[in-house]
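Section 3.1: Structural characterization of target chains.
Under the original work plan, the team committed to producing a structural model for every single-chain target entering the pipeline before any wet-lab resources were allocated. The record below documents one such target. The sequence was received from the expression subgroup and is listed exactly as submitted; it comprises 584 residues.
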Amino acid sequence: MEGKMSSTMAEDAVDYRGFAADKSKTGGWVPAALILGIEICERLSTMGIAVNLVTYLGGTMHLPSAASANIVTDFLGTCFLLCLLGGFLADSFLGRYKTIAVFAIIQTMGTGLLAITTKLPQLRPPLCEAAHANCKRANGFQMGMLYLALYLIALGTGGLKSSVSGFGTDQFDEKDEKEKSQMAYFFNRFFFFISIGTLVAVTVLVYMEDEVSRSLAYGICTLSMFVAIVIFFSGTKTYRYKKSLGSPIVHIFQVIAAAIRKRKMELPYDIGLLYETTPEPSRIHHTEQFLFLDRAAIVAEGDFENKVALAPNPWKLSTLTRVEEVKMMARLLPIWATTIIFWTTYAQMITFSVEQASTMERSIGNFQIPAGSLTVFFVAAILITLAVYDRLIMPFWKKWRGKPGFTSLQRIAIGLVLSTIGMAAAALAEMKRLSVAKASGRNTTTLPISVFLLIPQFFLVGSGEAFIYTGQLDFFITQSPKGMKTMSTGLFLTTLSLGFFFSSFLVSVVKKVTAARYGGGEGWLADNINYGRLDLFYGLLAALGVINFIIYIICAVWYKPKKPKVTIEMMNSSVGNAGAEEKC
């Protein structure tokens, strides 16, 4: 009777009242779908805003092109950086359910405020007297209201992304084979539906923003988020909840703090003298790298001052296994650092590339393609590349080499190469566009050159993302300690954040350094890109990509995987769990 009773209860999960979760009444597909809905609406809102924001900043707020690009990249960078805050709050204080609820409401408030700021004339500068002439820039109050809306959205997005996929995972019992297979299917559908959300954002919403009403489009985003929140709350009684085990970030800081505290102590010759209480099957073999951290496992006087069941103060003494976990995370950092430049390249696809498109011929018959909708080729490249890789490359590679596809490091390398080629193609396309601008007149509103000239750069960088995103995800999940999977996913997401921030930094530096030499004093990144040398900026990014790729190869050769044997089941579960941590 007891065995039968336990088989109906979900492993390590409780219901909304705090009792053991009954599988027949909680979890499964329906609650997971309710959680999925809120992520789809988040993706719809964030992408619908981000991919077309640069045209609003330049065309309506009358900001220079470089400033507009930096506002967009800073906004997206903040979105991903705040994922760490959301994850910390979920792991340490609020739990995933409350974190999703709180930050979803914050994002809805931000999107609603953005709809208001784009609607009220008082929150926008007056129209230009003529095309690109006598334009008055937005004042401090107008920009302040816009920033308030954007960063409320960024805060909400960061909190949501840190918890949505994890809470979706909580609805399935990994020790139940039936539910485990359902979870894998759930994440496949998760990726599919958020991709659909992205396509709707870059097509329907962008068209509405440009041709109907920007405030109406943002209002639809606000309403969809509100409906998604109501639906999310409706499932409260059917969700499964798992107790937090604490934040991995805190554990890392504890090891570092203990090592610093004991920095003057000598390491014992016998590693067996270091503190270790982890059960034998769960221990990690000692390594010779980062030996400084081993000092955190030296037993010293005062380490057991709390005297609770003889447990040590974690800020003074750590087990050797926990030290090795921190070392494993440290070994990921060189690969982490060399993938940041890709996301700097990616940032150009939703900033300067969109601005390029806005100056080119975009008509198909009587229909004019919105400049922001050019990113549909970017999304299409990702989906096509993933399909080709899954259906053609993987079977061929398995037949030829006996391996189920490229390794994570190989996929990252391919992504870096494709993005570098993409920037070279972008430089060539811009050279052609500038030659037409010079011949037709640099103040010409629509140049007589097809926007489809930009498709190669969108496709190359999009294909690169398909490889590098899945490669990074695989690498950071499978090469991190078991107890730090969430932390490693957050580490992966910070590469996106830093890539966007580095883009802002690079744009500012390039504009300042080149200001006195090109474009009548405006530099490579002139306020009107027809007077600048965006092709040289793209060329600089391509050169940085080559240098970064060389450094990456050195780091990849240096890196030695600590867990060469991973079961297929563990891989599917881990990648599935993290795969839902989608970007904006």
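The two ends are 49 Å apart (CA to CA).
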